[in-house]
Design brief:
CATH class of the largest domain: Alpha Beta
CATH superfamily of the largest domain: Glycosidases
Number of strands: 24
CATH architecture of the largest domain: Alpha-Beta Barrel
Shape: globular
Strand order of the largest sheet: 7-8-11-12-13-14-15-16
Largest sheet: 8 strands, parallel, barrel
Structural class: alpha/beta
């Protein structure tokens, strides 16, 4: 029998049992002009309705201090970004101590949230917005040597700046996300040059908001290209995962002496964690996820004061990427997971009144093993609720994802096999009959506390004929 436990360490600052993990860099969901293949985020139908007129827009600037440090100023006051990537549950974000969100494409601003357009709803909740422009990726087929395509992208930027520059929720223009490409064959020089041109367009139309561009991880070659070809850049955004806590020092080592934001962070990506013999990445347990997210935020904040202007935790929502639970801080049905509580403590210094349930262990003889098709097995979970709320258990067996993409591009959810759970559904212990088809699978369990909180975990297994 394999016993999967949260390898807990005592973190007195958190006042709870948590586990440690190692890690690296990664992605987020996206919606864009050509972004059906980009980061997958559930999106309501767009509307052509304009945001409510604002009597006065925001004024944001990056101030260079005499000691070489930087301060982000918003409406005359220092502003440290306590942000999240995503645009759901804005009231909860504000109640948790967060103050900002990051979007990826202008189309997201057209979405209706609680009956209002996103910028209006964010402003009402006291949340600023790093407004994303989806700068096209060559790996999605965009050709930066095609003058018509380049001009069409420039026009989209111009139109968006004119439309949204005076909205009081606007914090910065986030120009592009990981558009520099991946792998040794990528040649980002034309992209850096075009980004500089696009940033010039923004600055000509709007002198009241800085321009930020987001890259995938820190590499010396990227920083060199930006320094050489992209002088219009005000803030460098970095998406990083396992290596996120060290991004500030990595930027210094790579030659970046300007201000930056950690624009996506959380836990190690699926490509960074150990995998089974059949290639299934092993997802960290929920307590490990919470502590890694918390410690990454605190380390980046405290070790890079005067250079780090803030961060956006990833992902304030739910998405299918490797699994349905790896990156999202919420379930598809809207319940928050332990990572939300951890960030509430990081941002505000206070735990939520009602904490999410806590996984102690998930046990099953099939975990990380190969078993025969149609064979019987079982699983049992130990989950506690600090407030004594009654827990509701839901088990699910799904095929291992075969629609794995790069850079957070949209992935399809793998099929479920409800008949494989033959007894115990709704309880903490189940009986399983392995599916008949050979291949990789995952056993998921989720416990709901009925108070808006939940905890979920999974283990991979393999079926052979």
């Amino acid at each position: 029998m394999c016993r999967i436990k949260s390898c807990f360490i005592v973190v007195l600052l958190l006042g709870t049992n948590v586990a440690s993990a190692s890690g690296s860099q990664f992605f987020t969901p996206v919606l864009t002009a050509s972004a059906e293949t980009a980061r997958d985020v559930a999106t309501p139908a767009p509307t052509s309705k304009k945001p409510a007129a604002a009597s006065t827009g925001s004024k944001v600037e990056v101030v260079s201090n005499p000691d070489g440090s930087f301060t982000l100023m918003r409406n005359g006051e220092p502003y440290f970004v306590k942000g999240a990537g995503g645009h759901e549950q804005l009231e909860l974000l504000a109640a948790s101590g967060g103050n900002s969100i990051r979007t990826w494409g202008i189309e997201q601003l057209e979405e209706v949230v609680d009956g209002k357009l996103l910028l209006d709803r964010a402003h009402e909740a006291g949340i600023s917005v790093a407004v994303g422009f989806w700068v096209e990726h060559e790996r999605h087929g965009f050709d930066y040597s095609n003058a018509a395509s380049v001009e069409a992208q420039r026009k989209r930027v111009r139109d968006a700046v004119v439309k949204y520059k005076d909205h009081p929720a606007l914090l910065v223009w986030s120009l592009g996300n990981e558009m520099e490409g991946f792998g040794p064959e990528a040649n980002p020089v034309p992209i850096w040059k075009e980004l500089n041109h696009l940033a010039g367009i923004i600055k000509e139309l709007d002198q009241d908001h800085p321009v930020m561009t987001v890259i995938a991880g820190v590499q010396e070659s990227k920083v060199e290209g930006i320094l050489q070809y992209y002088p219009n850049l005000d803030i460098l955004g970095v998406n990083a995962y396992g290596s996120a806590a060290g991004s500030g020092q990595e930027l210094i080592n790579a030659g970046w002496k300007g201000p930056y934001m950690l624009t996506e962070f959380g836990l190690p990506g699926a490509w960074e964690e150990p995998a089974t013999s059949w290639g299934a990445p092993i997802e960290p347990d929920p307590s490990t996820k919470a502590v890694v997210t918390y410690t990454t935020y605190m380390t980046d904040r405290d070790e890079n004061k005067g250079r780090n202007l803030g961060s956006h935790v990833f992902y304030w929502g739910q998405k299918q990427e490797a699994t349905a639970t790896w990156y999202g801080m919420f379930l598809k049905s809207g319940e928050r997971t332990p990572r939300v509580d951890a960030m509430a403590y990081a941002w505000s210094g206070t735990w939520p009144e009602n904490r999410t349930p806590k996984l102690i262990s998930l046990e099953s003889p099939l975990a990380f093993k190969s078993i025969k098709a149609g064979s019987k097995s079982h699983a049992e979970v130990d989950i506690v609720d600090r407030e004594g709320d009654e827990l509701r258990y839901v088990w699910d067996i799904r095929a291992e994802s075969t629609d794995r993409k790069q850079g957070g591009d949209k992935e399809a959810a793998p099929p479920s096999f409800p008949d494989a759970i033959v007894a115990g559904q709704g309880t903490s212990k189940i009986t399983i009959k392995a599916p008949q088809s050979e291949g990789g699978y995952r056993l998921f369990v989720t416990a709901y506390d009925g108070q808006g909180g939940a905890v979920a975990h999974n283990v991979p297994f393999h079926v052979e004929n």
